[in-house]
Amino acid sequence: MTDEQTSEINTPTAGHRERVARRAAARERQRRRRRILIASLGAALAVGIGIALAVGGSGSDRRASSRSGSGSAARPRPIVPGGPLAPAALGGLAALWAPQNVVGAAPSTAVAYEAASSRPGLPGYLMIADRGNNRILIVNPAHGIVFSYPGPGDHARLFFDDDTFIEPGGANIISNEEDNQAIVQVNIAERRLTVLFGRPGVAGSDSSHVNTPDDAYMLPDGSFTVADAVNCRILFIRARRIVRSYGHAGICRHDPPRYLTAVNGDTPVPDGGVMVSEIEGSWIDEIGPEGKLRFSTRAPVSYPSDPQPLPGGRVLLADYANPGHVLIINHRGRVQWLMISTWPGFA
């Protein structure tokens, strides 16, 4: 890496303040809808948590019956069981370890996932994008740090690494520096950082720039996808060239896959498609590998973030709000599991 490239990577910008302001504005615009959400789901929350805990403990499908008393309104319909800790048969996270639900599997993936599924607690190593400290951490099940980048001997630096993912094969980490306008790769063994796309510190909307990149995923074919958030587009990039995209920079409206609003999620699905979250309107879209829209639904949240496909036609996502929410919905946007954070400031 040249001195010029290293200098670019270390260049801070005012993007973090802009990002905070954008997200605050989005939350303010949809404050009323969030209040409606909390009011409508508040009564169902206790039922949902009780069902989720019951399912996690026994594995049985216990659905509460809906009854109405004399002269009183009918009780809320119970939330369908099957939270993240539910058994695989009910679509819990363990079901994601099935071979047909894995994206970018390596030769040892099946064996590793099978072993992880039988372990209590943290099933394996955990990678953390410690963006406030501009570093990547990997922690073992005993909570010990086994990898940290950058270290004392590393010349290159990270800047606000918002998301990090292990690439297929396990040799590299891909990370999007959201406020530095770059997607970078870290070779774990050689501790070498490479800029994969974008110009560090410079936002743009042409064929070589991005504006607030989010959720960069390396795909099995060697290309990678990233949500070019402010430019309202999903990009597929190979060898520094955009080879495919959904949405158009400068045209932000909901009409997927031709047009998208501001995006912050572009999760690969196992068959080659992509799941997208649009901030304005709280849309969750799934686009197939051939570029056709499979479904589009409005999530009952104020700021949908990082949707993850679950077996059984369900979607796990976060609500980047205060208080924060984690929920599972179906393709019609109906809530099937919900958790509201009690931690101040959680999002």
Kindly describe this structure:
This protein is α+β, with helices and mostly antiparallel strands and 347 residues long. Helix content is 17%, strand content 31%. It is built from four helices and 19 strands. The chain has helices spanning 3-9, 15-29, 31-58, 109-117, and strands at residues 126-130, 135-139, 145-149, 161-166, 172-177, 182-187, 192-197, 213-218, 224-228, 233-238, 241-246, 263-268, 274-278, 283-287, 293-298, 304-310, 314-319, 325-330, 335-340. Strand 12 and strand 13 (274-278) form a beta hairpin. It starts with a helix and ends in a 7-residue tail after the last strand. Mean pLDDT is 79; it is low at 1-12 and 30-79.
List SSEs in N-to-C order: HHHHEEEEEEEEEEEEEEEEEEE
Radius of gyration: 21 Å
Q: Strands of the biggest beta sheet: in what spatial order?
A: 4-5-6-7
N- and C-termini, Cα separation: 36 Å
Oligomer state of the chains in this structure = single chain
Main β sheet profile: 4 strands, antiparallel
Q: Estimate the global geometry from the Cα principal axes.
A: globular
Low-confidence stretches: 1-12, 30-79
What's the helical proportion of residues?
A: 10-25%
Task: Determine the number of helices (DSSP H or I, runs of at least 4 residues).
Answer: 4
Which class of secondary structure composition applies to the elements? alpha+beta
Number of strands: 19
Mean pLDDT: 79
What amount of the residues lies in strands? 25-35%
